Amino acid sequence: MTPEDQRLLSRAIALAATARESGNPPFGSLLTGPDGSVIAEEHNTVLTDGDITAHPELKLARWAARELDPATAATTTMYTSCQPCGMCAGAIERSGLGRVVFALSSEQLAKLKPPTVGPAARQEGPALFEEARVPVEGYYLP
Ligand SMILES: [Zn+2]
């Protein structure tokens, strides 16, 4: 990690403070382009938007997928105040971003907050394979 990486991580941490000051969970992220300049910034707006998906990493991944061609997206780096959660990690992977640099790890964050409450949703399946495969067949593979 370079001094420039650390400078950009400090900016992501400042965005996390902005999120908290605006009444939201304290997380912030930014995206740099191929030349290392900041091309987008976001902070968490889960509470003010009433949107459980309004994590900054997810908002930036959606923005990149919408606004950047895949070759450009691959040259970007996301700097984020905390390691992306599972939802955001999936979106980052789908958006084709090139690199993620984070400050707090998930383990470090877990020590700074109460444990997550409520059981995880139970998943059941697979089922109805013959029926469910019909709309999928031929979409990805000829
Ligand atoms: Zn997230």
From TrEMBL:
Residue ranges crossing the lipid bilayer per the database entry: none
Protein name in the entry: Nucleoside deaminase
Species, as recorded: Nonomuraea cypriaca
Domain CMP/dCMP-type deaminase: start-end pairs: 3-120
PROSITE patterns on file: CYT_DCMP_DEAMINASES_2
Pfam families reported for this sequence: dCMP_cyt_deam_1
Record Gene3D superfamilies: Cytidine Deaminase, domain 2
Molecular function terms from GO: catalytic activity
